[in-house]
């Protein structure tokens, strides 16, 4: 069975998509078969993997509502072992459309039921704790939270942790917090260091040791339709994501043992 990982933070622009794409690619290079589900109507993960013409796309929305079969909703990418279920334009209406449906928070879980084709499925969530993110949390085994070390980060974090606890209690007892990733880290910023210390003090080993530095190559890569770890393997940002992938796999290994 695949391990399903939701990448979640209701705050915008904290590095969810960058983290999803680079981790997914790092995992794929060690021979794991990976699916990225673009579950954000902005479609950044789709663009970041080189798909720019979104008019004819079918993907996560159509799979979610059961209009197509799971295996019709994804496609190959230019990276071996890495597959993408893109975000089609229709996903932007989903939050409103789904409200009237029965079991509306379980649709993605149902669509992924019994799937054995992948080792890991990453779900890139939109910047909200709405119905799409809720569907991702109900379908997932684990949550990854990218966190940018800024003043409001802790406030936002307690909201996500509360939501995860609620989902675990009411909808998905399997759900586990895999970990928190400090992103866009700037060691020259006192505020950044202070917030990082606070987060580490409160959440201890739930925070990965690897920190993702602020790195311009990470920001440039999507415009070339490639994850940074492919676009510039050697840059500090890519190296940090490769290190993080290793740390996550080690943690998975310990959990399984
Ligand atoms: N470590 C980093 N260093 C520099 N730029 C980064 C870094 N991580 C992400 N970025 C850039 O910051 C912006 C936001 O990152 P990203 O799109 O990954 O965040 P997000 O949480 O997915 O945003 P949204 O909430 O809008 O989906 C992007 O332009 C991205 O290229
Ligand atoms: Mg995003």
Total strands: 7
The side-by-side strand order for the widest beta sheet comes to: 3-4-2-5-1-6-7
- What's the shape? globular
How much beta, percentage-wise? 5-15%
Q: What is the name of the CATH architecture?
A: 3-Layer(aba) Sandwich
Describe this structure in words.
- By secondary structure, the chain is α/β, with parallel strands linked by helices.
- The protein has one domain (3-256): Rossmann fold.
- The protein contains eleven helices and seven strands.
- A seven-stranded mixed beta sheet has the order 3-4-2-5-1-6-7, sandwiched between helices.
- Helix 1 crosses helix 11 (236-256).
- It is globular, with a radius of gyration of 17 Å.
- The structure holds adenosine-5'-triphosphate and magnesium ion.
List the helices and strands and how they pair.
Elements: E1 3-7, H1 16-29, E2 34-38, H2 44-48, H3 60-64, E3 75-76, E4 82-85, H4 91-97, H5 107-112, E5 120-124, H6 131-139, E6 142-148, H7 153-170, E7 176-183, H8 190-203, H9 216-220, H10 228-231, H11 236-256
Parallel strand pairs: 1-5, 1-6, 2-4, 2-5, 6-7
Antiparallel strand pairs: 3-4
